[in-house]
Each structure stands twice: as C-alpha cells, then as structure tokens.
Amino acid sequence: MTKPAYQRVLLKLSGEALMGDDPFGINRATIERMVADVAEVSKLGVELAVVIGGGNIFRGVAPGAQGMDRATADYMGMLATVMNALALADAMRQQGITARVMSAIGIEQVVEPYVRPKALQYLEEGKVVVFAAGTGNPFFTTDTAAALRGSEISAEIVLKATKVDGVYTADPKKDPHATRYEQISFDEAIAKHLQVMDATAFALCRDQKLPIKVFSIVKPGALKRVIMGEDEGTLVHV
Ligand SMILES: Nc1ncnc2c1ncn2[C@@H]1O[C@H](COP(=O)(O)OP(=O)(O)O)[C@@H](O)[C@H]1O
Ligand SMILES: O=c1ccn([C@@H]2O[C@H](COP(=O)(O)OP(=O)(O)O)[C@@H](O)[C@H]2O)c(=O)[nH]1
Q1: Where does ATP bind (predicted)?
Q2: Ligand 2 pocket, 145 CB below 6 A?
Q3: CA angle in degrees (0–180, nearest 5) for 59-61-62
Q4: Beta bridge partners of 237
Q5: Is the pLDDT of residue 1 over 80?
C-alpha cells in the first residue's frame, strides 16, 4: 500500500462550507461528510490539526456587522469559530475519532486554552486537534490562523479545503473564463492579488517556507487524494 505523502498537516476547513446548501449555520449532512473525510486520513496515521472558520455563523466584515466596531465584530467571528469547533469535535467523536479543541481566547469553562506543547502532545498521541478562535486577534482571518498554527506545529503543509477546487486566475465565482493553476508561487499569488487566501496568510507561509494546497471540500475523496500526494487542487509554493 502506498504511504501518505505527509506525516503532519494543518487542515483549514472553511466555516462557510459547513452551511452546505443552507443559508447559514451548520448543515448536519455536510459536517458528517467532512468528518468522514477527516476520519479516513486520520486512520492512515497522518497527524491532523484543524483550523475551523466561522463565516457560516458570523463574519466581521459582513453586512450584519455594518456599523459595528470592527474589533467587536471580529470577536463575535472568533466566538463563531468556537461553536463550529465544538460541533466538529462532537461529530468526530461520533465517528470514533478523539479530538481536542483548543481556543486562542480564554474561555476555559467551554474549551481548553491553546498551549503549544499540549497541542504537540495530542498530535503525537494521534488525537485530532481543532484550533478555535482563529489567532485570538481581531483584524485577522482563520486563514492566517492556519498559517500561524501550521508554522507553530511544524506542519509539512497547510491544506485549505474550500468551495473552489484550486487557485484561479480570477475569482471563478465571478469570472467564468478564469482558469485554474496547477501550481503557483507565493510571490505570484500575492502580486496578482488572488483572493483565495488573504495576503497575510500567504506572506506568513512564504516566509516560513510552508506550502499550501488549495482544494475542494465538496469534491468526494479530494482530501485523501491530497494526503496521498496525488494530483488534486493547486499547490502554492515558495
Ligand atoms: N483567484 C482565485 N482563485 C480561487 N478562488 C478565488 C480567487 N479569488 C477569489 N476566490 C474566492 O475565494 C473563496 C475562498 O476564500 P474564502 O472566502 O476565504 O473561503 P473560506 O470560507 O474557505 O475561507 C472561493 O470560494 C472563491 O470564490
Ligand atoms: O484570527 C482571527 C480569525 C477570525 N476572526 C474573525 O472571525 C471571522 C470568521 O473567520 P473566517 O472569515 O476566517 O472564516 P471562514 O472564511 O473560514 O468561514 C472573521 O471574519 C473575523 O471576523 C478574527 O477576528 N481573527
């Protein structure tokens, strides 16, 4: 049997993808399917840390936050990621995976705080670690949290599971003529202002020489193919 291409990965799961076809919130069938994909690779022995987004519940720059103080709206966004993390960890438990949620903001009665050595210990024990509350700071995104935590845990790659199947020349949801890159350098992605991830996340990964793979969360089996090193999505590299 072929071996996975990676031993330790940071998986960024889109908050918005959790909605499925619903207008907001967590779609049960969608979260169960995502967790089944995660379970499949976890059982291959790959150490998995997850950063979960919150856009399905609250986004700091959304119309619902209009007129609000940006930092306050962002803290609401971070709390939304905590809810998603709890739902995700519970769905994992139901599928036989042991998961631990760690929060970047103090909320001890609900989840344990992020402590790096503890996170590393959990990973070595084969537990899935779910990082909640992003970076713990307003004005950042969970993509940047994925770059940060990925660097901290020495992940070999950041896997950005999102609604599109890679990085395109333009936003494929707006431009039907956009074409997909098989691979692209950080410098080119930043210079061309490709919006699939924010520039802060790209820059941090570039500086840490941490590659990113952008792939579809909707496509069945895509996560496993990425983990096995097969041709899937777009690789963003140094
Ligand atoms: N050049 C591009 N290539 C691919 N996707 C892009 C590009 N520009 C913008 N996007 C959009 O970025 C979205 C992914 O980013 P984001 O909204 O942060 O999603 P997530 O919820 O996964 O964090 C895609 O759904 C896509 O519509
Ligand atoms: O380090 C962080 C991470 C997230 N957020 C807030 O949380 C929201 C939800 O996260 P994100 O938009 O990255 O989630 P996703 O795109 O995956 O749904 C963001 O809009 C921000 O308001 C933040 O302030 N700091």
Answers
A1: 12-15, 55, 59, 162, 168, 171
A2: yes
A3: 65
A4: 185
A5: no
- What pLDDT, in 10s, does the model give residues 86-118? 999 999 999 999 999 999 999 999 999 999 999
Query: Which listed ligand is nearest to 234 at the C-alpha?
Result: 1
Q: Is 186 annotated as a binding residue?
A: no
Quote the mean pLDDT of the chain.
96
Reported ipTM: 0.91
Q: Is residue 225 part of a domain?
A: yes
Taking only the tens place, the pLDDT of each residue in 212-221 is: 999 999 998 9
Please indicate, yes or no, if residue 3 is contained in any of the structural domains. Answer: no
Q: What is the pLDDT of residues 120-144, one digit of tens each?
A: 999 999 999 999 999 999 999 999 9
Query: What CATH number does the domain containing 143 carry?
Result: 3.40.1160.10
| Cα–Cα distances in angstroms (integers) from residue 184 to residues 166, 173, 213, 214, 234, in the given order | 10, 20, 10, 11, 7
Identify the domain containing residue 161 by its residue range: 8-237
The residue whose CB lies within 8 Å of the most ligand 1 atoms, and thus the one to mutate among 81, 164, 188, is: 164
Residue 154, both tokens: 């020495």
Total number of domains in the chain: 1
The verdict on the CB of residue 162 being under 6 Å from ligand 1 is yes
The answer to the question of residue 120 being in a domain is yes
Give the ligand 1 atom nearest the CA of 198. 18
Per DSSP bridges, beta strands 234-237 and 212-216 are: antiparallel
pTM of the entire predicted model: 0.96
